[in-house]
Records
---
Amino acid sequence: MSVRSTAAELMNTEVVVVSPDDSVLDAAQSLLYKRVSNAPVVRMRDKQRVLRGFICEKDCMSCFADGRIYSRSDLKVSDIMRVHPMCIRPQTDLFTLATIFMQHGFRHLPVVEDGVLLGVVSRRDALEGFLAHHAAYRAASPEQRAQMLPDFERMDTRQFIIG
């Protein structure tokens, strides 16, 4: 059993994305049709997805609930997206990733390098990673086990967070 232990190894690269120029109606329909709860907002540059923001079902729903979508049918994703979303680096390890999820309550985190979206890692991806890590830990020798866990008292998430 291989153990995926970094964001790059855990992330999903087949990510539903939207453009800042998309209408909120189109973005909401896309989220529903593709059965995802959120999407990175990207601009294409040289065939790379440059992260501009993040949008979720709640952002879209608030436009209906507060009436904005009824008075402004031209409402764009760029009008409601969260700019400068918290992102993580590809080398973020599993334990740091879990700490970030727990501290901030996010369900998904974009994995970004030099502003380019590489993928998205979810809490579910992290939990799958932990199950595989735990199985490997249980199968390891005592000497190997000592190398498999971080120093929990010295964990610092700041070096892995972008934005």
---
Amino acid sequence: MFRMQMPRLHELRDLISDPNSLDAYFQNFEKNVQGSPRHVKKIYLSWENELNGLDGNAWELLKSEASSYLIRKDRSGRGWQQLFDILNQARAYNYLKAIGCSDVRFIPRSDTRTPDLEGILESVRTLCEVKTINISEEEARARREFTVRTIVTRLDGGFFRKLKSDLLQAMDQLRAYDTTNEARYFAYVNLCFDDFLGEFKREYFRQIDQYLSDNPIPGIAIVFHNDRMPFHEELAIANATVVNAG
């Protein structure tokens, strides 16, 4: 029913040999999209839009990389987060195109860790590493065990240690790949807060902005993805770019 509206999501679904497996994503996909609240369909359409932004070669590479995670559910409470860690790269691809990059492509995996994307921006080679900060172990456990918990208004030290580690790791990967030391560097960061409904998202971004002001990382442009589906507001901060999607 929704194949015409979401052709690339259906291409992923078609890769699953046993769609009824409990470890398979897209279980009862058509029924769930049709029977769920409207925002569920909007979320899937938003993903379809991201995937449609990829050219044919980029899509085939991303699809191949994502294929093994379509039937790999993490039973610790994170679901198919590994799958979406891969698909998140499409967001960075589309961001680079949106700011005017040409010749955007995914960098094939190699024995040594490489950045995810490269392109040309204003005649300058541009490299981008994509990172995802997932929910905490405590939140994953609470979701797995259906535990009642209180969502806090302040991000803890563990979040900022992870953010710093990811950004420094991205910088190392970009520098190692840039043998000429002339490229422009980007880190595209997808954030999965413990606050599932996003009630404190504005406050979280304020804290992140303050942290980056106090702990700058020169030489890299930091981009955060703010998924506004289904009702979140647009956000902006001083020390990084925020992509307000949805």
